[in-house]
Each structure stands twice: as structure tokens, then as C-alpha cells.
Amino acid sequence: MRRAVFVALIALSACATTPGALPTPRYADAASRGALASVFAGRPSATQVAQANEAWSLALGDSFACGAPVRDVLNAGLVGALEIAAMNAAASGGGEAEIRNGVGEYVGEVARMAVERRARPSVARCDALAGWAPRTAEQGRETVARARANGLMDDDYGLLLDLLSR
Fold this sequence. Notes:
Layout: H1 2-13, H2 27-33, H3 35-41, H4 46-66, H5 70-92, H6 96-115, H7 123-129, H8 132-149, H9 156-164
Helix pairs in contact: 2-3, 2-5, 2-8, 4-5, 4-6, 5-6, 5-8, 5-9, 6-9
């Protein structure tokens, strides 16, 4: 049994997003479930955090540039903000306050991306991103709701992102 737990922990700690891949939330879900789940998610390296930040920012920025539905991209951005903040906190041994601050910082980045003029990516890239934002937003909806209920995210972000989506 110990060996199975150890193998699971090693596998989870290696689950950071790699650049170029479409990112998915892993650490966000663990953080929203509490300290024990965060421990099981593992401790990413600084390199893994940087790669995840790059992958989320590239996917979100490209989604905006491809003309994906803004509401879907913004909601995916909330998931990404929680993911990046949770990874940063896990990497540095930080807690809820660090996650809350990190979410706020990344939401600011998402807002900047929403209004940034950016060259449209290739058709292949836009095709790859076409379903990513709505799928990511849907997959992360419960995670974001749990994080808000647990005090990891402010409710004000929804208001800000509502304004941006108009």
C-alpha cells in the first residue's frame, strides 16, 4: 500500500503542464479541496511553474487572438489563475494567502490579455484552441466555486471579467 501511495505521489508531482501543450488544471483542483489534497498533488519545481505559466498565458492569449468567445476564455482564465497561483504556492510552501494573491495577479494578466492586440495564430492553432477554452471553463467550474467558497478567490473577479466580456 505504501508503495502505491508513493508511486501515485511521484506521478502527480510530475503532472505540470509543458509548454506548447494546451494546459489543464491539476493543482487548482487540489488547492480547492484543501491542504491534504495539495500535499498529494506534489511540489512542482520552479521550472514547472514557469512552464505552466507560459502555457496558460500562451493558450489564453492565443484564444483571444483567435476570436474564441470572450466569456469562455475569461472563465478559462479564472481556472488558469487558480492553477498558476496554486502551483506557485505549492512550489514555495506557501498557503492560502499566497494563492489568493497569486490569483489576483494572474487575473490582472488575463484582463491585460483580453484587451491586448495580438497577431492571429495559425489556423491549425486556432482549430486546436477552438474547444479548449469552453472545455477548460466547464472542467474548472466546480473547482473555482470550491476555491471561492474556501476563500482562495475573491468574488470581485467575476464582476471584472463580466465587464471585460461586454
